[in-house]
Amino acid sequence: MIHVSDKAMFHIHTARCKHATGTDREYIEKAISLGADEIWFTDHAPYPGDRIGTRMLFSEREEYVSTMNALRKEYAGDITLKLGMEMEYFPSYEEYIRETRNSGIFDLLILGQHYYEREDGTIYFAKKNEENSDERYGLSEGMIRGIKTGLFDVVAHPDRIFRNCREWTEDMAAISQKIIDAAKGTDIYLEKNYASSLKRDHYWDEFWRMVPPEVKTLKGLDAHSVDSLRFLDFDYTPVH
Ligand SMILES: [Zn+2]
Ligand SMILES: [Zn+2]
């Protein structure tokens, strides 16, 4: 089980994923200047074969690790650097996820279910602004199976699967309950995601009100730019 400090910058991406900006060093130095004692890099993981765009390439993974390990040493007197990756759960890649987990290279794995694998092995890329209940089921089923593997430490933005929904429904509550039930009795954290709170319908108070105290939660930045680093000591106001 991971422990994240109260003064941590948690869930930070790097430019390797091709949709974040800034250098690794800029993130670290900004975090130090804000008074953070930990910085948790969790860039989007590549998968063998590079089927998913807007990710680092599989061939870049080694560089990610070696660069971060060097930076960890260099900045050790100023800040603790933790290294992880954010990954979807895809059944065909479960062995890869397990190897990643057991490699000892990473301090944590975040389950970030942006896409899901269909039964025929193809990967579904959720479309923006398209109401589609299959998408919610597919994403939630992938997320729940991922939680049950025990290979992940944190579920990023579980409520983001409702980003194409416009108002809270019983169907959404039922899906939410299944996710929360999967997390019950485990050490996994559900992440209240700061980046989600800034986007329309990405963050749902209704979801968080259903989470009982025995299920662990934490707050994450999901930073894709150096400017977005900040301490998260307030409650988010959803944008609908
Ligand atoms: Zn991203
Ligand atoms: Zn993220």
How does this model look, in words?
The chain has about 240 residues and is an alpha/beta fold. The chain is about 30% helix and about 20% strand. The model has no long low-confidence stretch (mean pLDDT about 95). Strand 1, helix 1 (about 25-35) and strand 2 form a beta-alpha-beta unit. It has a seven-stranded parallel sheet with strand order 1-2-3-4-7-8-9. It has a two-stranded antiparallel ribbon with strand order 5-6. The two termini are about 35 Å apart. Helix 4 packs parallel to helix 5 (about 170-185). It has helices spanning about 25-35, 60-75, 95-100, 135-150, 170-185, 195, 205-210; strands at about 10, 40-45, 80-85, 110, 115, 125, 155, 190-195, 215-220. It binds zinc ion (2 copies). One zinc ion binds near residues 13 and 19.
